[in-house]
Amino acid sequence: MKVSVSILSSSIKASDIVKELDKTNADFIHLDIMDGKFVENKTWTFSEIKKITSYSKLPLDVHLMVKNPEKYIEDYAMLNTTYLAFHYEAVKDINKMIDLVKNYGLKVGIAINPETNEEVLYPYLKDIDEVLVMSVHPGKSGQSFIDASVNKIKNIKDEIIKQNTNTIVSVDGGINNETALLCKEAGVDRLVSASYLHNNLKENINILKNI
Ligand code: DX5
Ligand code: ZN
């Protein structure tokens, strides 16, 4: 199982988490970028992000919870970014946004909020690398997993198999050893987690890796 560590925390400094990650089995650093418009909260500025991410060699998985995500691509393409995910709900011309991200040589992800029906993504599966299923309402860490996300993952996975695309499915929000298992059984490829992992970074990363 791939594990992406979200560094969003209300109690631990992001840079202190990042400094530990190269000593663990984590696969990615998950960066939650919020603009105070698409979601209420705001996270780091780009110059803060450059500093924070300089403490690790791990590839980045960027989650843009912002309006006008096209404005952020150039910046994040300069970092060690592998995946860049924008929200379906934040973009009018999805095909144009997919092309913009690809033109920077990045893998494209589309995130969907809990209230968004997964079928809206089916026309785009063949053109994207990742579906990011939000299993909490975006905006902060430490919320409880929304159970309906399991079925959503299963439906998306079935559709990916049907269309025979290479798209991976990630899940983000309320992931711990128990919810991770449900998502694995539904076919998820990558787990994103913050609070559960921060409790005991090395050990809990290993638990999710081996789930
Ligand atoms: C929520 C963020 C998540 C969040 C996950 O809006 O997208 O990445 O940090 O935090 P936990 O794992 O605590 O739910
Ligand atoms: Zn996230």
Give your account of this protein's structure.
This protein is of the alpha/beta class. The protein has a single domain (2-209), classed as TIM Barrel (Alpha-Beta Barrel). The protein is 33% helix and 21% strand. Strands 1-2-3-4-5-6-7-8 form an eight-stranded parallel beta barrel. The longest helix has 15 residues, at 149-163. The protein is globular, with a radius of gyration of 16 Å. Zinc ion is lined by residues 6, 30, 32, 63, 172, 192.
Short key terms for the protein model shown above:
211 residues, alpha/beta, TIM Barrel, 8-stranded parallel β-barrel, 8 helices, globular, binds D-xylitol-5-phosphate, binds zinc ion
SSE layout and pairings?
Elements: E1 2-6, H1 14-21, E2 28-34, H2 46-53, E3 60-65, H3 73-77, E4 81-87, H4 94-103, E5 107-112, E6 130-134, H5 149-163, E7 168-172, H6 177-186, E8 190-193, H7 195-199, H8 201-209
Parallel strand pairs: 1-2, 1-8, 2-3, 3-4, 4-5, 5-6, 6-7, 7-8
The protein binds D-xylitol-5-phosphate and zinc ion (ZN).
Main β-sheet description = 8 strands, parallel, barrel
Termini separation comes to 7 Å
Number of domains: 1
Number of helices: 8
CATH architecture: Alpha-Beta Barrel
Strand order within the widest sheet? Answer: 1-2-3-4-5-6-7-8
CA gyration radius, whole angstroms = 16 Å
Reported by name, the CATH topology is TIM Barrel
Summarize the structure.
With 211 residues, the protein is α/β, with parallel strands linked by helices.
